[in-house]
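ESCALATION

Customer reports they have been waiting on this structure for their group meeting. Please prioritize. Original submission:
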Amino acid sequence: MSVLMDPTTSIMLAILLGLMVGSFLNVVIHRLPKIMERGWMKECAELRGEPIQPTERLTLAMPRSHCPHCGHVIRARENIPLISYIVLQGRCSACKSHISIRYPFVEAVSGLLAGFIVWKLGTSWEGVGALLFVWSMIALTFIDFDTQLLPDSITLPLLWAGLLLNLGGTYTDLRSAVIGAVAGYLALWSVFWAFKLATGKEGMGYGDFKLLAAIGAWLGWQMLPLTILLSSMVGAVVGIALIVFARHGRNIPIPFGPYLACAAVIALFWGKSLNQQYLDLF
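Update from on-call: job pushed to the front of the queue and completed.
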């Protein structure tokens, strides 16, 4: 059931919420891989029987955000999404070092997509679920770009959330969602092993399997061919452009997760019409 509210007000509130969530996503993108790395190092030390070296506590909430150059703690008024970046002219207030343009970019994308979702889907369960899905895709996209990791702590809860939402047929029926989760995982798992057996190399990571499984759980198996096709097309174009224009080495791996995420967002909003147009060709 939708909450009764003026549409314009709902959209503006969604944009404001999206900006705040975008600020949090920047923290997740930056810290979650570091938290994971510390966990792996701790586990390795325990397996080797080595003493665990004490380190500063690191969570998504602690310590407070600070400038990586001078250590200046970011005050509340310096952490207002978009506005603080503009007021500070993209520089640290203490040492005047440049602040990455990525921070306001993630906030802006998160806010604009939130507004678009509420405009298109309203404040129903479908709209709320789409917000969760899109924000997760934003976080996964930038984490994969930075580290070539797709954390289980995001992909697996996303998969289960998709199945739970589709208990009531929010995006597709439960049968299609379950088949989508299984088929999504097996599709890329099969490609992984075929490539490895043919070349002796690993062409992608297990996180890609789990991400496509999550996409299948949300959108159903019917959207998987479109998602794979779109992500492959975008990935091929970007990969060729990196090799030609950025002199990106052919042997340097390119993360596939961001292209899956972008394709999934397209499929979420326009997948049914795109599938229909494709079928109409035949």
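Sent to customer with the following note: The chain has a mean pLDDT of 89.
Escalation resolved.
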